[in-house]
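Q: Sequence in, structure out?
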Amino acid sequence: MTCAPDCAHKRAYESEYEAQRVAEHQMGKTPGLELRVYECDGCEKYHLTSKP
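A: Exactly. Output:
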């Protein structure tokens, strides 16, 4: 996984589908956790965030 320097510390997913599955799994394990998927302009992969 190669990421841009500003997102190198984040886990990157190859597809939006993969990222969404991980987000749903994490939210199911942690009540109240809200995650969303976004496409990164830096690495053109997908990341998760809890920010609105």
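Helices lie at 16-29.
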